[in-house]
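Budget justification, computational time. The allocation requested in the original proposal was used primarily to generate structure tokens for proteins on the priority list. As evidence of use, we reproduce two of the resulting records. The first is shown immediately below.
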Amino acid sequence: MLDWSRGELGQRAGLSERTVTDFERGAREPHENNRRALREAFEAAGLEFIAQNGGGAGIRFRNRADGTREEH
């Protein structure tokens, strides 16, 4: 969705690229502070997390208050 590299995601979340890679491949389980940092990085980029609502949990771009869509 955002077309970020692992390095860019790590930088935005304050994590190393190696840490992001380890999370992706399941070599390490992220601690709560890592999950929070990743979520905050995604939310700062305009994404919002959607709770389980019968159709499954998900993520989407948040609309701006003026009705236009944020582009990233």
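The second record produced under the same allocation is shown here.
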Amino acid sequence: MKILANDGISAIGKQLLEEAGFTVVTDKVNQEDLINAINTENYEIVLVRSATTVRKEVIDACPGLKLIGRGGVGMDNIDVAYAREKGKTVINTPASSSQSVAELVMGQLFSISRFLNDSFKNMEHGDFNTLKKNYGKGVELRGKTLGIIGFGRIGQSLASYALGIGMDVIAVDNMACTVNIPVKLGNSQDVSVSISTETDLKSMLGKCDYISIHVPKQADGSAVIGAAEFALMKNGVRLANAARGGVFDEMALLAALNSGKVAACALDVYENEPNPNKELLTHPKIACTPHIGAATMEAQDRIGAELAELIINEFVVK
């Protein structure tokens, strides 16, 4: 069977698949040429990350396509329900990138607490003493309360890191449950903390010094956090979004930043990727990264290996 890994796959993932008898092609096909390439080259499996979309028109036009795989968590770039209705297998790798995304968010929280993003941009051409004065009112994370919206694998991994540096954690999810969070302390030392999720988002917002969101893009395209939710937050709250563009109302976010309601925000995802609103990218209170939450070598190795295992189990083991 031939596999098109159109957004790439790690060396270990490619090796495992080839050892199992698959042909893996990693040559990039432009979106507009995808249908022709699948049919001409007889690809039966297409693997994507976030750049390539597999919509209804691709599914309808490619009858030989048997499996669509997403290297990552969210599958909003695939028409999943329609593909499955047409008999296609659709897989993703929800566990493989959790740690990498959580570590990025922790880095973002440190950055927006100490003005690292803006000071880095201004050090080359700014006046040293003026910058020192401007950036002299940072805050510490230890002892602060972090609200995590969406308490799946990534949210739980983030909680582990936050607890490890001495933050208090409030978790909100659709379902009320108690989760045992392992906290790795180094030197082979572990502790465990139980967190009971809340289900009332609005009542949580005013309790938090920091808020990080980890939910999928909403089916109707609506924002989870808009002007009404920003109004309920503490003055000076700091935010992070490494989930999906659109879960924050970006115009409402800009208004909250400009009013001082939100002290700073870190964004790894945007509504109009790969062409985000320039006002977000240039705002001095926003720390931006280009959707790199899962972009670590370790995560990509785990994603590739998990994809390979799923495909082998589907077509070889069966």
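A brief technical remark on that second record: The mean pLDDT is 96.
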